[in-house]
Fold this protein.
Amino acid sequence: MAEKVIKSADKVAEEIIEWAEAHGLETAFDRAERLKPCPIGHSGACCKICFMGPCRLVGQDAEEKAVGTCGATLPVVAARNFLRMVAAGTAAHSDHARDMAYTLLEAATGEAPDFQIKDVQKLHKLADILEVPTEGRTKEDIARDVAEKLITQFGQQKGEVSFIKRAPKKRQEVWRKWGIVPRGIDREVVEAMHRTNMGVDQDPDNLLMNALKVSLADGWAGSMISTDVTDILFGTPRPRRSQASIGILKEDEVNVVVHGHEPSLAEMIVEVSQESEIIEYAKKNGANGINLVGMCCTANEVLMRHGIPTAGGFLNQELAIMTGLAEAIMVDVQCIMPAIAQAAKKFHTKVITTSHKGKMIDAIHIQYDEHRAKEVARQILRLAIDNYKNRTTEGERVHETSPVIAGFSHEYIDYMQGGRFRASFRPLNDAIMAGRIRGVAGIVGCNNPRIAAQDSVHDYLAIEFIKNDVLVVTTGCGAAACAKAGFMTPETALEMAGPGLREVCEAIGIPPILHLGACVDNSRILTVATQMAEEGGLGEDIADLPAVGIAPEWMSEKALAIGCYFVASGVYTIFGSESPVEASSEVKRIMTEVWEERVGGKLEFIPDPEEILKKSLEHIDKKRDALKLRKYEPGRFGVERKLLSMADRRKLESPARPHEGVK
Ligand code: MSK
C-alpha cells in the first residue's frame, strides 16, 4: 500500500484536506500536484518580455551559448526576471502603504471620521524623523503634516527617501557607496520596469544591484511607512493572548473571516462587531454572537492589536470555507486565491471583495470607502448574519486550537527588557555577548504547497533554532505556522528552548519565538536589528550581528522583495525551495559572492531544511567569532547584567502605563 503523504503539519488543516479529498473537493495542494511547474520558467530561463519570444534559453552550455532572439544571454534573462519580481513585491507592499498614508491624512482632516489617531507617542516619533514641528500643535495638525510628508515619499524624484536615515550610519554609507539609496518609492519601481523592458539594461550585475535598490524602497520606505502609520492609527501592538487554528470557527456564532493585508476595514469590522445593535441582530437571527477570525496577514494585524484569533496563513483560506462554518470571508488585497470563490460555491460562505484593485468572479463586491468605513463594515456584518440561516451540516468541523501570544512590536521588545523608564536593548545584546543567546533568526514568509508539508519547514527551523539558543522573530505566514503549532507561549521556552535562551525567556516572561506581525512588518525586524547594532557590543552595523533571515516556504514576489532588502541591509538570507534563477550560475554567483562583498549580505536558495539550519548556525557562529564574542557552548555562559523580570518592572512603575504586558 502506498505511504500516506501528509500535506500539512497543521493537524486541523490536514484533517480538512483529507476530508476534501474524500469528498472530491479540490484544494491548492491537489492543483500543485497536478500542475507541474514549467522547468524553464521555474529556473528563470524563459524570457517573455517582448513578443519575439517567449525565448527559452535551454540546452547544453546554455549559460555560455544560449541567447534569445534579441541576443539576450541567460544571465541577463534570469536577472531581468528576478528584478521584475522584486519590483512587483515592492509595489505591492508600497501601494498598501500609500493607502495607509492617505487614511492617516483623512483621519487628520476629518474626512475619514471613523478613524482616530491612537498612538500619539509614535506620531511624535515619526514627526521628529520627518522634521515636522510638534510644539503647541494638535495631534491632527501634526498627523496631517506627517501624512503629507509620507505621501511625498512615493513620488519623490530626487534625493533619498527619508527613512534611510533610520538605518545605522555605517549601513547608510554602504548604500551610498554603491548608489542604491532609493530616491522615491514609485520612481524605483518604474525604473526597474523600464530597465527590464526589451533592450535596456543588459548587464546582470547592474540589474541585480537595481534589485537591491528597489527592495530598499520597500523595506526602508514602503513597508516601514505602512507599519508606522498602522501603529499610529490603530495602536502599537503589545502582547496579547489568543488562539490559532481553523478550529477557532464556532458552531453557534456567525463566523466572519477577515483576509488579506490592509487592516483599515478589518479594524472597523472589529469595532462594529462589538456594537449592541449588531450583536442583537445576530441573536435575532439565531446565533449566539459574532466570531471574528483572521486569515493571512490581516489576521496578524488584528491578532497583534485586538487578540482576534487567527485561522492561519495563506494555504488555510480554502480550508476554512470547507468547515462549512464561515458565513463570510471578507478580502481586500494580496495573497487571496481566486479558488476561494469556487470553494465557496459548494458551501454557504459568501466571499466579499472590498477593494477596486482586487475583484473576483463569483464574489460579492462591497466597495470599501474610508469616508464611511463603519457603514461599510456594518453592511458586511449584516450580510454575514443574514447568511447564518443558510448554514448546513456540510463540511469538516474540527475544533482544536493552540494558544498564542502575539504582539511584539519593536517598541514592546525595547520595553520588555527594561520597563518604561529603562527601556533598552542592552539586556538582549548582553545575553548574546555572554553566549546565553547564540544569535537571532528571522523566520518569515509564506506557505507554498510545492514545499514539503505546509508549515513543516517553518516549524522544524523554529524549534531547532530555539533548541540551539537562537532567539526567533517571525512574521507573516511563518508566524501563523508557529502559532498554530503552539510554539508561541512562554511555556514553550521551558519545554523546548536551550538552557541559555530559556533563562532569558523566563526572566523576561516572553516566548522564545516572537510574533512581530504581518509580512509588511518585516520592517520591525529592521528596526530591531538597527537598535541592536546601535546599542553597542555587537558591532556597528546590521551586517555585524550574529543573525540570519529565512523564508523557508516562500511563494510571493513580496517575499523576494523582503529577502533582497534583508540582504541589502547586510543579512545572510536563505530561501527554501529551488531558486528562481537556478538556470544561471552567474546570477547565483552575483547574489552570493558579489553581493556579500559589497553589502555584507547574500541570498541563497536551499531546498534542504537541515542544510538551512546548518548554514545558519555556522553563519551565526562566524559572526560571533568576528565580534570576538565568547564561543557559544550550550549551558555555559559568561556574566551579563541582571535582566529585569516582569515583577521587577512592575515594582518600578505605576499601574497606569501604556504597555502593561500580556492581556
Ligand atoms: S500573507 S506574502 S503568503 S507571508 Fe502576508 Fe503569507 Fe507570504 Fe502572503
In short: The CA atoms of residues 579 and 605 lie 5 Å apart. The pocket of Broken Fe4S4 cluster is lined by residues 261, 296-297, 313-314, 335, 445-446, 476-477, 518-519, 556, 558-559 (CB under 6 Å).
